[in-house]
Structure formats: C-alpha cells, structure tokens
Amino acid sequence: MRNMSAWPRTMASLNSSNYGNIICRGPKIAIYCLVALILTNTAAGSRTVGESFADLAQKLLPSVVNISTTSVVKDRSASPQLPQFPPGSPFEDFFRDFLERNRPQEQRRSTSLGSGFIIEKSGIIITNNHVIQDAQEIKVILQDNTALTAELLGRDPKTDIAVLKVKTDKELPAVSLGDSNQLRVGDWVVAIGNPFGLGGTVTAGIVSARGRNINSGPYDDFIQTDASINRGNSGGPLFNMKGEVVGINTAIFSPTGGSVGIGFSIPSSTAKGVIDQLQKFGRTRRGWLGVRIQQVTNEIAESLGLTKASGALVAEVTEDSPAEAARLEKGDIILSFNGQLVEEMRKLPRIVAGTKIGKMVPIEVWRKGKKIALEVAVGELKEEQVSLKKTPNKNTSEPAAESEIPSLGIKLAQLNEANRAKFKLKKSSKGVVVTFVNPNGVAAEQGLKKGDVIIEVAQTQINTPKDVSDKIEEVRAEGRKSILLLMERPTGIGFVALRIGKG
Fold it and tell me: Rounded to whole angstroms, what are the CA distances from 171 to 18, 120, 124, 168?
C-alpha cells in the first residue's frame, strides 16, 4: 500500500503545477496525461482502505463501552508464620497442616476490566461471558465517562457471550451486526476496546483466517485476525469497513501475555442467534441429537468404504434421545444434517445446535457400505444431558490426594476447598490442579507451574487425575505423540500442547 498511496501525491503535484499547460502541447502529451488521470483515479480508490481509518473510528467509538466488574472473594493469604524447626522435624508438617486448616478468611473486593458494544439505543450491550462471570456488580462506562449500572439479561458460557441492559434517559449510539459469512481472508477489519484499561483504543488489521477451532468449546468457529488485541479487549467489537460488527473479540494466542498478532473473534453469524435467545429467554436453547461422535480418519474411511474422510462417526447413541428414536446406530457416519454437508466432525454440533427445536429434519448416513436416509425430530439440549458425575470428597478441608502423571512429568490433585485456598484458585475453576512439576519433564518445557489448572484434555472436560491419565492412554493408543490441554493460569485461560513422554 505504501507504493500505491504515493501515486495520488505524485499525480496531484503534476496536476496542480503542469497539467493545464501539458494538455495544450500536443496529442502525445495529452495521451500521457489521460493515462496519468486514470492512474490517479485508480489510486484514489484505494485510499478508502489504505490511508486512514479516522472517519470510521470517529463514527464507531461512541458505541463501544468499557466494562468494569466487581466481585467479593475470600482471601486466606493472611496467616501466622510457620515456626522454625530443625530440618526433617515431624512438627513441621503438623504445624503447616494446622495453620492451613485454621487460616483466617478475609473478604476483599476484586475488580476487572473488559469491553463491550451497544446494539440497541435503549441500552442493550454485548460483551463476553468471561468478562462478567461471578461479578457482583457490573458497570458500563460510556465514551463520555458516564458510568451506568448494568443488569445481566443472560449469558452463554459455551459461546462466551453475555447480554447486558442499562437504564438511561437518552438514546445511546448503537451499531448493527453484519454478516460475517461475507468476510474473506485478507479483508480489512478494525478492533475497538479497552486493552489494559486504556479505553477507546482503535487497532486495525486483516482477517487472517476463518473457521478456526481453538478447542475452547463445542461450537468453535472463530475469525482469526492480526489486529492488535490484548487483555481488556475481550467483549469488544470487530468491525468491517462498513462499520458493522462482524465479530466479538474473545481470545488471543500469546506466549508472552501480550498481542503477537493472533487474535480470535466470535463471528457475528454465531452471535446473532445466541444474542436473540439470551434477550428473549435469558438462556440459550440449542438443538440436541444425542450422539457421541469422533473424527473420521483416512484409515476409518478406507475401512468403511468411503472415498474420502468426511462426516462424523457415531461412537455412542444416548438412551432415550432423538438419535435413538431416529434409529441411528453406533458406527454410522453422519454425512449431512438438515441438508447441510458435514465435512468434518466439529461442524455437526454447530449445525444441530442451530436447528429449530422440534423440527423434523433429514439425515444422510453411511452404513455398511451405502448411504441411508433417516429423519430425526431435534430435541432441546439440557445442561444435565452433558454434565459429568462428580465424586464428592469426604473431607474437603484436607487437600485432595496427589496422583503422578509420569508421561507429562507432573502431579495432579482433584479440586476441593483446601486446594482452592492453597493455590488461590477461583470458586468457578473446574478441572484438576497441578501440585508438582518435574523440572526435567515435558510439562516444565512448556512452562507449567504449581497451581495451574487443567480444564480439558484433548477437547474433553476432566474432573479427576484419572481422567487425565485415561485420556493420555487413549491418545497414545491412537498413535498421537502430543496432547492438547486447556489451562487456567494466572495470565488467563489458554491452550498448551504437550509432547507425551514415556509413562
């Protein structure tokens, strides 16, 4: 763009000083000037994208808000110092356990910052669920620094979207949701938000990729952009050049904690339906089929007579589910659902979730070497249908027993009250906590530390150390050499890929 933007300046200089004289000097010069004029107009057309985003930013900034949340948390950090004992003294463990159990609890106020945007003049605001999660008080700060108390209308953890409502006597500047399906890789986009508490920050970049799966949930379909996104941008809008919201900035890939040019936004095509349902019902109503699926590999496709690896392999059919009623069977490969092709496994949950509840839809499956047509009445997904049974600890005041995972070089423990206090974890944290890291192990190579929480392993939610070891063995049996972990760390939630060592 630098070379192209130089053209208008060069040609403007020519036109202003010599153009009037040159066109009178003969036909050849007139032709040259005509060519120059065409080039000038062509270059001028590129300026709408290449030279400045100032007009667009000025128009959009008032519709972007800062989100400030306050929560009350228990602080057990203040406690008496452990008496000094000779090395190896049995009293050391005794006093440590005693003081841990009797450490005084104090409440403290915790604040966090994020971003959001206004979609209705009456005061409807969109942000991320993780921005307002566990908040006792939510404040929305407008561009003119007006602070308004917000009411939570609804939130959806699976897509990380929340809808807020503020009361105001004046109309607020609202923006509209655009069609993210029209985005192409390479299109310009603009992000506006509140990074590091610096409100009203505008950054620009391009769409780097579409349909990204970062293993944050079952409906991943992220827009990837190199527009600078940092902590505090979460919940803010990603605009196209028409000033329409095409994404909600949600996550970044960052080994350093700051922007490295890889940011992820929830596409507006996903957000529209969720926002509408949260406004109407205060929750999200999703379609439910009732199957456990897995990826169709080249080897599986070949063994079942498919010409290419596509679709979703049914590994299990839930009892009393719509899938069972439709006579889906274990081993079927779902090729299409409601007329939409299932090119890969992860597309099916998104299609089913977005289908109208109660609707009778066609399904095409591959069974025993041929295609079969079925019909299914889509059910409604209930939280209890995907929840996992939890084994309660008999004594939550004692730290849970540790389990060693030699292949990763770590020790893990189940989350309970004592471990949450010991490692200063959130009440909302789920998974297992890292209690020891072998400095020579594969986990240490990737920077895992004591107090880190493992939420998912290989895209599967886990609740016990045994879940982790079982998943590792499952992945190893598939011949894979690495495993993806979803981690909660002091710097935030992110993904870590670990090489599987010898168990």
Answer: 52, 9, 11, 7
Structure tokens at 236: 């803010």
49, 175, 197, 194: which is closest to 121 by C-alpha? Answer: 175
Token pair recorded at residue 282: 């205060």
pTM of the full structure: 0.60
pLDDT digits (tens, 9 = 90+) for 223-246: 999 999 998 999 999 999 999 999
Q: How many helices (H) and strands (E) does the chain have?
A: 14, 27
In contact, 152 and 140? CB cutoff 8 Å: no
Q: What is the three-class DSSP state of 501?
A: coil
> Which stretch of DSSP H or E encloses residue 251?
strand 245-252
pLDDT, tens digit, 9 for 90 and up, residues 359-392:
999 999 999 889 999 999 999 988 645 433 333 4
Asked if residue 209 lies in contact with residue 265, where contact means CB atoms within 8 angstroms, the answer is: no
Pairwise CA distance, residues 107 & 3, whole Å: 59
Between CA 257 and CA 261, with CA 258 as vertex, the angle to 5 degrees is 125
Q: Is 160 a catalytic residue?
A: yes
Is the distance from CB of 327 to CB of 367 less than 8 angstroms? no
**CA atoms of 256 and 50, how far apart (whole Å):** 30
- 18 Cβ contact partners less than 8 Å away, ≥ 6 residues apart: none
169-173, 214-218, 408-412: range with lowest mean pLDDT: 214-218
Burial label for 296, CB within 10 Å (0-12, 13-18, 19+), is buried
**Nearest CA-CA partner of 374 in 361, 366, 385, 363:** 363
**One of 156, 160, 221, 467 is an active-site residue; which one?**
160
From the candidates 112, 130, 265, 336, which is the catalytic residue?
Answer: 130
| 63, 68, 234, 407: the active-site residue | 234
Residue 136: burial class (beta carbons within 10 Å; 0-12, 13-18, 19+): exposed
Does 220 participate in catalysis according to the annotation? no
Do the Cβ atoms of 223 and 210 come closer than 8 Å? yes
CA–CA separation, 419 vs 409, rounded Å?
20
The answer to whether 289 touches 322, Cβ cutoff 8 Å, is yes
- Rounded to 10°, the helix 27-50/2-14 angle is 140
Is 345 within 8 Å of 294 (Cβ atoms)?
A: yes
Please give the Cα distance from 388 to 412 (Å, whole number): 19
As given in the structure block, the two tokens for residue 234 are: 């979460």
Q: How far is CA 440 from CA 41, 349, 437, 443, 445, in A?
A: 63, 40, 9, 8, 8
